[in-house]
Each structure stands twice: as structure tokens, then as C-alpha cells.
Amino acid sequence: MEFTNDFVSEALVREFPESVITQSESYGMLTLEIKKEDLKKVVHHMKDSSLGYTFLTDICGVHFPENPEKEIGVVYHLHNLVENHRIRLKTFMTRDFAEVDSLTELFAAANWMERETFDFYGIKFKGHPDLRVILNDPELGYHPMLKEYRLEDGTRTDKDDAMFGR
């Protein structure tokens, strides 16, 4: 058995035919879009089955305000260390329902990654043991990585934007 993108894709589509929405390959990395309500069970299978994705590399949020049906997304990178195979999983939701199941039961490392994603994008992780701000000031009152905010603080006088190519 050769551990290829096609092998992994076929295995997941066979096991979860209704859960995989789209699949693509970007720069050699398999990318699957998964229904948000099925994400945790898919990841659980990927970790505990012969697929062996036992390392959670990263979790991050994305914001696409031009697409209201898929405005908010969460991107997961998993790694099978034995086969040295990486995969990207994506799940999308509307801004009103920016909530997905926490993976902290499966990966301890998900704890801080989910807190960071909540902090910057406002995405809630159901079942997270301590979902609160981790990097920003708790009194900030907004999620700064959403594309509805200005890139720079207009009140700053200590910077000259010309120094940064603007």
C-alpha cells in the first residue's frame, strides 16, 4: 500500500461519503472540505484508524466576507509522521453560526490553537475546557483578524506608512 493523496482521499470518502464536500490538491497537499457537524468524527477516525494522523500541526481561522454562506472557516493541518504525509481539512460556516466542535479531547495541542482562533476570529469551539482570550487584551471587545477592521490604527503617530511601501 502506497500512502498517497488518492489513497487517503478514497479511504475518507469511502468511510464518510456524506461528510466530504470537496477535495483538491494544492502544492501537493490534499485538501478536503468537511461538513462542520462531521469534522470531529472524521478527525477522530483519521487519528485512531490505520490512517494514523496523530499530529495536529495547526488550527487557524479564515474570513471571507464576500461569501456569506461560507464567511467563516476553520483550517486544520494534520500529519501522519510515520508515512510523512500531511493533509489539510477545511470547514466553513455562516457568521451567525461560527461554532465548531473542539478537538481538545483528541489532541491536547488543540487547546491553545482553538483559543487563538477564538481570540482572533470569534469562532467558538463547543466543548473546549477554557475558551477565552489568549493573546489579545481581554477588554479589546472585538476579533481583530476579521476583515471588517482597518489594518492600522489611525491614531498612531509613531509610524510613517511610507516606510512600509504605502
Explain this structure.
The chain is α/β, with parallel strands linked by helices. The protein has a single domain (5-154), classed as 2-Layer Sandwich (Beta Polymerase, domain 2), CATH 3.30.460. Helix content is 20%, strand content 28%. It is built from three helices and seven strands. A five-stranded mixed sheet has the order 1-2-5-4-3. It has a two-stranded parallel ribbon with strand order 6-7. The radius of gyration is 18 Å and the shape is elongated. The mean pLDDT is 92.
Percent of residues in β-strands: 25-35%
CATH topology: Beta Polymerase, domain 2
Q: Are there runs of 5+ residues with pLDDT below 50, and where?
A: none
**Element string (H = helix, E = strand):** HEEHEEEEHE
Q: What is the terminal separation in angstroms?
A: 53 Å
In short:
By secondary structure, this protein is α/β, with parallel strands linked by helices. 20% of the residues lie in helices and 28% in strands.
Key features?
about 20% helix, Beta Polymerase, domain 2, 7 strands, two-stranded parallel sheet, about 170 residues, elongated, five-stranded mixed β-sheet, alpha/beta, single chain, 3 helices
Show the helix and strand layout.
Layout: H1 5-15, E1 20-26, E2 29-34, H2 39-48, E3 55-63, E4 72-80, E5 85-93, E6 99-101, H3 110-121, E7 124-126
